[in-house]
Specification:
Elements lengths: L3 H11 L15 E7 L18 H9 L1 E3 L2 E2 L5 H10 L3 H4 L15 E2 L14 H7 L3 E6 L23 E3 L31 H13 L7 E6 L11 H13 L10 H24 L5 E7 L21 H4 L3 E4 L8 E3 L3 E2 L3 H8 L16 H5 L9 E6 L8 E6 L2 E6 L5 E5 L15 H18 L5 E2 L17
Parallel strand pairs: 1-7, 1-8, 2-10, 3-11, 5-6, 5-7
Antiparallel strand pairs: 2-9, 4-16, 8-9, 12-13, 13-14, 14-15
Helix pairs in contact: 2-8, 6-8, 7-8
Length: 477
């Protein structure tokens, strides 16, 4: 009989434990979710950027599936973030604007009394994964709790399913003494050395977490503060891109801003460091990596030509880079044209993790697993919806995408915009007058959806003053 001790030694030599991970790799895959703030459709090389340099992100896209019609659930941040974590449309949540939103006291319509927090009665994505045996950590921008209200402390990430919170608080952008540079004034994040950059510091924390060793699969939810303003980057990168701008031929009308380019490079460095750490630990093949954004970039030069940008109802404000890498399941370099949205991540990750669905929670999400595995080329869903009963850079609106058609309804006067996105992805020609029956069909669907979700509508403002309608006592966000 073969000596069992010898067999054991042979096994250990042939298959050593790698890094600091547990002796038995978990069957459930790990999840690294990377959410970028104010990310434009055209900010990365794989979507055509030439001034910005994103080799690590481009490599990630080449190793996973790119969704060419991937959408945020809102054109501003807080509602989009809530939709990802809940699997529900902002309209259903009644959380429909960034916290605390703009104020237009003399505008034509009054904004409804909307939510500024997520109910504790809901089971969020991290809570569902935690129930399934996952460790959960949050890093970066939270922006999902009220400012200065009595229950302020009850809505940190650790109150909503994350075991650890590093950097998340009420802020929608860095407001510490140094902004993107030390000191940061953020929970569980030391200020480090003078001159340290926030994206680097948060990435250090993510790397430390990954290398900590654990017996559970994990969700690492990295919600970057970048690329939100104020635009700041390390001096050496500002100098690098200032030099590059002098000779750059800007045929695509990219945003040639050295500070923002430096922020993009730091983002790309961060993604590269995380991917390298997964490889070093020997867990890359058992880790799903997702990369997307919360809304469009903060200028029309971040959209690769799409109309509008952050805050606008058009494609540039809501279409996002949307990448999923699922090793062994998703064909590297695959591209999918099916329209998908932020609410879909919740049911998708539950299915990937082999956990039961929670349809009473992720009511507006659809699992993307059939698309990721190639088992299907379509989803059992026809329409995507948006609802924004607020004032921003655009006036209040609702929108529906149905197949290749998109309808926008402006709430102030009921004006309609209809686009055929297949023929006109840049929304240059309003077809509402040319195809009135199609416009009316989509408007009916949009109204029926608002009723089904209990979407809050605006009312005539008794204080309406045409001369003062655009006054906004709050600073722009």
């Amino acid at each position: 009989m073969v000596n069992r001790k010898i067999l054991f030694l042979v096994w250990m030599v042939a298959f050593p434990v790698v890094g600091t991970v547990a002796e038995e790799a978990p069957c459930k895959p790990n999840v690294v979710f990377l959410l970028v703030d104010d990310l434009g459709w055209g900010d990365f090389g794989f979507n055509g950027a030439e001034f910005y340099e994103t080799p690590n992100i481009d490599r990630l896209a080449s190793e996973g599936m790119r969704f060419n019609n991937g959408y945020a659930a809102c054109t501003v941040c807080s509602p989009s973030r809530a939709a990802i974590l809940t699997g529900q449309y902002p309209a259903r949540l009644k959380l429909t604007d960034w916290i605390t939103g703009h104020k237009r006291p003399y505008a034509k319509l009054s904004v409804p009394d909307w939510e500024t927090r997520i109910s504790h009665e809901m089971v969020l994505l991290p809570e569902a994964l935690k129930e399934g045996g996952y460790d959960t950590v949050f890093l970066g921008k939270w922006h999902l709790m009220p400012i200065g209200q009595p229950d302020f402390d009850g809505h940190y990430p650790t109150s909503h399913g994350f075991n650890v919170n590093i950097g998340g608080r009420e802020w929608g952008q860095p407001k510490g003494p140094g902004k993107y540079f030390s000191p940061f004034d953020m929970p569980n994040l030391d200020d480090g050395k003078p001159g340290e950059f926030l994206t680097d510091k948060l990435t250090d924390a993510a790397i430390d977490y990954l290398g900590g060793g654990r017996n559970k699969p994990f969700l690492l939810y990295f919600s970057y503060y970048t690329l939100h303003g104020p635009l700041m980057a390390p001096p050496e990168l500002v100098e690098k891109y200032t030099d590059k701008a002098r000779t750059f031929k800007n045929a695509k009308k990219e945003w040639v801003n050295p500070r923002r380019a430096g922020m993009v490079e730091k983002l790309d460095d961060s993604v590269g460091r995380i991917l390298a750490k997964l490889e070093e630990l020997g867990i890359a093949d058992n880790t799903v990596v997702i990369l997307t954004g919360d809304n469009g970039g903060d200028a029309d030069t971040t959209t690769a030509g799409l109309k509008g940008y952050k805050g606008f109802s058009h494609e540039g404000g809501v279409r996002e880079p949307f990448v999923v890498k699922w090793p062994g399941k998703t064909r590297p370099g695959a591209a999918c044209d099916v329209p998908v949205i932020g609410t879909d991540f919740y049911p998708t990750l539950l299915e990937i993790a082999g956990l039961p669905q929670k349809p009473s929670e992720h009511r507006d999400g659809v699992s993307l697993v059939p698309l990721l595995t190639g088992e299907a080329e379509e989803l059992e869903r026809e329409n995507l919806y948006w609802h924004y009963p607020h004032y921003h850079r655009t006036k209040p609106y609702g929108a529906i995408r149905s197949g290749e058609w998109k309808l926008i309804e402006l709430f102030e006067d009921g004006a309609l915009e209809l686009y055929d996105l297949k023929k006109d992805p840049y929304e240059t020609e309003n077809l509402a007058m040319q195809y009135p029956e199609k416009a009316e069909e989509l408007l009916t669907l949009l109204k029926e959806w608002r009723t089904s979700t209990g979407a809050q509508m605006m009312m005539p403002n008794p204080d309406f003053d045409p001369k003062r309608a655009n006054e906004n006592p709050r600073r722009k966000k």
